[in-house]
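Data card: per-record layout.
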Amino acid sequence: MPYTPHTKEDVSSMLDTIALKDESELFDTIPKELRAKSFDLPEGMSEFEAYETLKKIAKKNKNDKVLFMGGGYYEHIIPSVVDALSMRSEFYTAYTPYQAEASQGTLQALYEYQSLICRLFEMDVTNASMYDGGTALAEAALMSIRARRRDKVLLDYRVNPIYKDIVKTYLKTRGFEVVEVGKEGIEIDKDDILEHIDESIASYIFQNPNFFGSIEEYDEIISALHEKKALAIGLFYPISLGILKTPGEMGVDITCADGQSLGNYLGFGGPSFGIMATKKEFMRQIPGRIAGKTIDINGKTAYVLTLQAREQHIRREKATSNICSNQNLMALRATIFLSSIGKEGFKDMAEQNLQNANYLKEKLSAINGVQILNNAYTFNEFVIKLPKSSSEILNGFRQRGIYAGIDLSKLYKGFENSLLVAVTEKRTKEQLDEYVSVLKDLL
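The structure for this 443-residue chain is written out next.
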């Protein structure tokens, strides 16, 4: 990392300019009782020494484990071309197109990203990405409230629990009502949801496959919503759309997703980006920014930022959102990823996820005392119930270099000794068989 240290003369000059005697005066607004007595900082290091120190710290991270954890973030194969192109300085340094006319390459990449997302989700329009899947879902809820001028949203029980908290937090601070529906359980109770649909709600938010991995039919619910002029907001796992019905086919009004699985690594839960797409009629309600294509004064193709209804550009009270980041680099990686594997490659990847997960599910169901809790079809994630302590089982797996799943008892009541297991195309048959063998030993 390049250093840009200030000399004593630099510091003295800056303090003179702002009429201060000492750097500590910069913190006078912070009450003394809240300030640290001493930071106890070590002596400064050279660039080389700092780099070597950071390398030693980084080596403590474990990156040789076999992952069967999902819950919203997944380990997928990433073609080498994604790193090769996205790490070019032209892309890597131009993380957001602040000066649009001077950012033609970045804007064209975003335009292509939007085109790919619209085709994948079969929706009319998408923005140039958002912060992550959870905030995209919360913004979709606010978008439905603006579009329908109603102040209540239905939120399905089976939506990712972290995302649910984000939605509730966003809407509570605005004075809007969030009603959790669907009763507790892995699969939906359609009757309970249908009972809550009336003219008072702006939208119903669901996830497919849901957080527990089950795939559901929502046609009846979406029809009921549209009869009451309410919107259907769907949260989807992008890779599953290689074989599952798309949001456009289902009649979803606003669709969201987390884009980590599209060419981005698992780095402590990220980096990631949010996807939001919608029907053309709601285009002017979409937050963030949209990259558009036009013709300049000389008749040449030009790319622009359009429909920027953000607080940076218009009066705050008129803005659709205060979202200022479009996670450009992560969206670029998704663009390269989707372009490189193509339509058939994407379908093949989805099918491998499905086949691998079904293979493991079948093997686990044959173990005495192990129960598969999903009654509905699943994609690449499912729930197993164990006859022993889940924390004890997980610890045993970890000692053998395997992260065996997510302990659902930490997230939900009534899921004691239950694991959420995810299987992607990266898991080999040998690894799947080893999972079964280790679980038998631990039981």
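Known properties of this structure: The chain has three domains: 8-49, 66-74+343-442, 80-338. Residues 8-49 form one domain.

See the next section for split statistics.
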